[in-house]
Design a protein that fits this description.
The protein contains eight helices and 14 strands. The strands form two sheets. It has a seven-stranded mixed sheet with strand order 1-2-3-4-5-6-7. A seven-stranded mixed sheet has the order 8-9-10-11-12-13-14. Helix 7 crosses helix 8. The longest helix is centred in the C-terminal third of the chain and has 11 residues.
Length: 258
């Protein structure tokens, strides 16, 4: 049964559920693209930064996800109240970027492997959560969802048990961030997800077909394809992904690569 607060969100959501949002990447970049989601607990605004880096303004504060790159890329955004880090790879975790962005009151939540890499000063502001665990920030329950490869030749990139995805449980609105993963059973088993960020690139994660199959199964209300630039021809086409997603999921595009 759908929770009453979720029904209120769906009733107030933007028109066009089941459609594909097609705004050219260049136009969205020029407009400093962001999308707003009106939830029972208040507005959530999504700011794509690059590749796997996201800034979200939420009722619980401003959340940075996997912030890497030049600190200048984050100018104009509110300072981070919370930083989530999925795993240790350089396109998700960078110590110098964190040092520039993390302020005295910023909290961090990471997987255990990244926690072990933090400076002692940074560890004092951080907590670690392993696959299947739960963290709390200002009453926001954050689930650590496994993120790993299942294809034999890809297991070296993201071994099972090390890396995290996250589900953020806002009031009447659940956000899933995949991190780097394939279409694992834990992703397919997700329930009541309102907004998802799903990776797709080769050889590191999965192709667009696998991502679309998983998304069609767990059925988020909205999904952003992200982290889709790959290696050796492994870049995935977000428009092809959108055409394969079934059900009432609305696909949102964003200028992750400028």
């Amino acid at each position: 049964m759908t929770h009453p607060s979720r029904r209120r969100f769906i009733a107030g959501a933007a028109a066009g559920v089941g459609t594909i949002t097609l705004l050219p990447f260049a136009a969205r970049a020029a407009a400093h693209a962001s999308d707003s989601f009106d939830t029972p607990g208040g507005m959530i605004k999504v700011h794509p930064v690059a590749h796997a880096s996201i800034v979200m303004e939420t009722p619980k504060g401003t959340i940075y996800v996997d912030p890497v790159g030049e600190p200048a890329q984050y100018e104009g955004f509110p300072e981070a109240d919370l930083v989530l880090i999925t795993h240790e790879h350089g396109d998700h975790y960078n110590a110098d970027t964190l040092k520039a962005l993390v302020k005295d009151n910023t909290k961090l939540i990471t997987n255990p492997a990244v926690f072990g890499k933090l400076s002692e000063e940074m560890k004092a502001q951080a907590s670690e959560v392993a696959n299947g665990g739960m963290a709390d920030y200002q009453g926001l329950k954050i689930e650590a969802i496994p993120a790993y490869n299942i294809t034999e030749e890809r297991k070296k990139f993201h071994p099972q048990g090390r890396d995290n995805g996250y589900v953020l449980n806002f009031e009447g609105f659940r956000v899933y961030i995949s991190g780097d993963t394939e279409d694992i059973p834990e992703m397919r088993a997700l329930k009541e997800i309102d907004l998802a960020f799903v990776c797709m690139n080769l050889p590191f994660t999965m192709d667009a077909n696998a991502a679309a199959s998983a998304v069609s199964e767990f059925g988020p209300r909205f999904v952003y394809p992200y982290h889709y630039r790959g290696r050796d021809g492994g870049t995935q086409d977000p428009e092809a992904f959108a055409k394969m997603v079934g059900g009432d999921t609305e696909v949102r595009f964003a200028p992750w690569y400028g």
